[in-house]
Amino acid sequence: MSKYDEIKHLAYKANMQLPELGLVLFTFGNVSAADREESVFAIKPSGVPYSELSEDKMVIVDFEGKTVEGNLRPSSDTLTHAVLYKHFETIGGISHTHSSYATAWAQSQRDIPIYGTTHADHTTYDIPCAAPMNDDMIQGDYEYQTGFQIINALKERNINYEEMEMILVGNHAPFTWGKTAAKAVYNSAVLEEVAKMAYLTESIKADALRLKDALIRKHFERKHGPGSYYGQS
Amino acid sequence: MSKYDEIKHLAYKANMQLPELGLVLFTFGNVSAADREESVFAIKPSGVPYSELSEDKMVIVDFEGKTVEGNLRPSSDTLTHAVLYKHFETIGGISHTHSSYATAWAQSQRDIPIYGTTHADHTTYDIPCAAPMNDDMIQGDYEYQTGFQIINALKERNINYEEMEMILVGNHAPFTWGKTAAKAVYNSAVLEEVAKMAYLTESIKADALRLKDALIRKHFERKHGPGSYYGQS
Amino acid sequence: MSKYDEIKHLAYKANMQLPELGLVLFTFGNVSAADREESVFAIKPSGVPYSELSEDKMVIVDFEGKTVEGNLRPSSDTLTHAVLYKHFETIGGISHTHSSYATAWAQSQRDIPIYGTTHADHTTYDIPCAAPMNDDMIQGDYEYQTGFQIINALKERNINYEEMEMILVGNHAPFTWGKTAAKAVYNSAVLEEVAKMAYLTESIKADALRLKDALIRKHFERKHGPGSYYGQS
Amino acid sequence: MSKYDEIKHLAYKANMQLPELGLVLFTFGNVSAADREESVFAIKPSGVPYSELSEDKMVIVDFEGKTVEGNLRPSSDTLTHAVLYKHFETIGGISHTHSSYATAWAQSQRDIPIYGTTHADHTTYDIPCAAPMNDDMIQGDYEYQTGFQIINALKERNINYEEMEMILVGNHAPFTWGKTAAKAVYNSAVLEEVAKMAYLTESIKADALRLKDALIRKHFERKHGPGSYYGQS
């Protein structure tokens, strides 16, 4: 027993959803779950196949990126998670995948335009693609800088991390987050579907129009905020 | 026991077909089944995952959109269903999904051209894409207006709802209907396949030709009308 | 017991492979198996879902298209099968699907160019797309004429049916055949994969080159003819 | 019992991964596992369906391509494996598939540009596409020459086989290798995913930029070489 059992459990279950949802090949992804009171998170160990994962293999890391508990080396992306937990103060989970369509948009270095209500049900903005970092940052502390690359991309666009729970890291792949690890994984799956639909939309109509503002607002407000009427409660 | 058990059962079974047919991610879809004698329909509760669905969770709603029986909030698209049941007087089921290819055509705001016999086996017309509604309608009673948006798109094209059991709502996603809830779901799957084939057809040949009239009529009549000879009986 | 049990069994098993190989949605396909001594074939009944199929539901039809045994109506494409069995004298099975990529090429009314060895392993020619038939033929005996449409497309290209066991019917969908029903279904799956690869090839390189003659011959001869060395015996 | 039991086991298990990973249709692929001390490898028998494969059906072949043990005919691509084992002295496994996206790039005769970190995690170079061989070589000992075609393509680009464990054979399909048969199959799956992502990237942005050098080096070094920090130990 450890006081971290709860987040280990949440991180394990969320990680196992990635292959179930078809979002990862081999070990190309990782999810973490945070305990805000203890200022730590549980994250997938690096390079361990999903079929060999278990709750007790999750690594506990603090928000500076230091391992607090666990015998395995944490995900190579751990410092990115740490930076995001430190700066996005209300999130409880982070998910990183190399899902095919979202990654293709990241490789294209394009924001994903908001073409329809599937997108607007989740956010009112285009999904940002953070510009690749400069060479100094890459040669410095790369994963740490990736966290700031994400934070800065939102800042430049004047978007709050609670309004936009998904991002593309240019030439790399998507990161998503949320109140819980399960929500972060949900966002990874939604992003992949939105990325696929936007790709198909442009293939069907090269000059497709973005969704108009009234529809963006309407669909987002159906699901979010004081007047929402989607779901139970 | 309730006098609505039959339509709850039909609605439940039809809803469960959506994930089996690969037509929904998470809860992005809903199906209803109508009882014409009682002027009510059973519909999926809002935001409830398919894995947690059961017959007794179906919500009974009348054709004005008022809940008649059930403890859960009905689908956020319930008013659209209600309007369609009221105006399409012979239908017994409605299905709504965000399936990838059909949604991409909706986001492109293009009708799906009739390129082949797979399409003509089901309807003699291009699949209409209803133009996005104006801002007043959006800010009014949105889901109610979506019903009229669908009705009007058929009217403008002079197509009867019995000849065309599928439609794309511009920038949103497809709705389909039929004599039964099972037929409505069948139409959702056919629409997705027809949408995929039309997308591939234009990719393979940018100026692909529509199917000629003689073939459209022949294939439709093989399956429908007095001289049909497809299926048993 | 019936003297047709063997072909009923073969037809049933071959039909059941279509959904297993992902080649059909609902009932959009049919396979038949011939008994050359009896000049009959067993074929799927029309419109019966694969999940409800059984050996004894197969319908026995002669090469004129007349039902010889069975209570169900045979596939609506039965006359096409009958014509092909009559004219392609050494074949023992025919398969018809609406598989997505092959159907998209048919809708594009283009032959599938031979771009690689996956294609050349099976035939040395582009896969022909038969031109849509003229209106008189459509309004006449349509399925019967579809058989001749296929026969004529091969004749025009001076290709023997033993050298080319697959064809696209323009605006419609593929037909394939072979020594056995199992081989016909195998060809349906190969055609779908070849159609997908050719589509991707042109997307990656708009002016992709056809495979050169020496490679076409080499790969075909590896698998076929006197000097073949693929497979056992 | 045979002194080759170990490589038969490894070859069998690696071959069976191909259908599990969705990399083969029917028998369109083969994997081998080498025993460097005995200078032999175990390879799939030719044309045998994966469902009928077993460890004892694997064929033992020496590096000249001569069968050493086994009653079945080895894969028709055996000579290509033999040549590669002879010249790539540290590899222990080879995998050959006709996976859809990688094969489409091969048919396009284009190298796969390095567009993102998924690619750079595995190699710092574009994936080479070996030019189709000349007609004399094709009519000579084709599979033997395919081995040299691969070796020469790396030589021309001045790339070592340990730095690039995957290649496209122009107009044909991919070959991959690695320290073990399992690693070779892993590389087949990675190549297919990288090929898919590069295709999507160019579809989303026709003039997409290659990954910049600093990112290529960073991602490769995260996983490989003295300073690597991916995985356990």
Task: Briefly characterize the structure.
The structure is a homotetramer of 233-residue chains. Helices cover 40% and strands 15% of the residues of chain A. Chain A has 233 residues and is of the alpha+beta class.
Give the SSE layout.
The structure is a homotetramer of 233-residue chains.
Chain A: H1 5-20, E1 29-35, E2 40-43, E3 59-62, E4 67-69, H2 78-87, E5 93-97, H3 100-108, H4 117-120, E6 129-130, H5 135-139, H6 142-156, E7 166-169, E8 174-178, H7 181-204, H8 213-223
Parallel strand pairs in A: 6-7
Antiparallel strand pairs in A: 1-2, 1-5, 2-3, 3-4, 5-8, 7-8
Helix pairs in contact in A: 1-7, 2-6, 3-7
